[in-house]
Amino acid sequence: MPFKMTGEDYADASLEQLIKIFRKLSDNEPLVAKLSQFKNERNFLSHKGITHCLDYEGDLSHSTAVEFQSRLAAIEVEAQRLYIAIHEEANKFRGHLWFDDLTAG
After folding, report:
1. Which of 17, 23, 85, 86 could cross-link 13 (Cys pair, CB 3.0–4.6 Å)?
2. Can you give the three-state secondary structure of 8-72, one letter per residue?
């Protein structure tokens, strides 16, 4: 089966588009769900987080900023975990390419 996808095909893709591609290449729905949850948290922290850290006068709200700091630390750990999980999933596919399935009847 030809596989003609290159890095150029997804180099400028959004995280949501990358997850959609991954969903087509993997049957691991729990991992896809975790990737979507990660995307939602990342989008909130990166796109809306700054407005939540400002008070009505445009000054930094330290209590809210501290809360976001813990969320940023948590998402960093989750990103590392998902990175490993994605590579483990990819290695399953690679294993099927290199070896015949000896468990099949």
Report:
1. 17
2. HHCCCCCHHHHHHHHHHHCCCHHHHHHHHHHHHHHHHHHHHHHHHCECCCCCECHHHHHHHHHHH
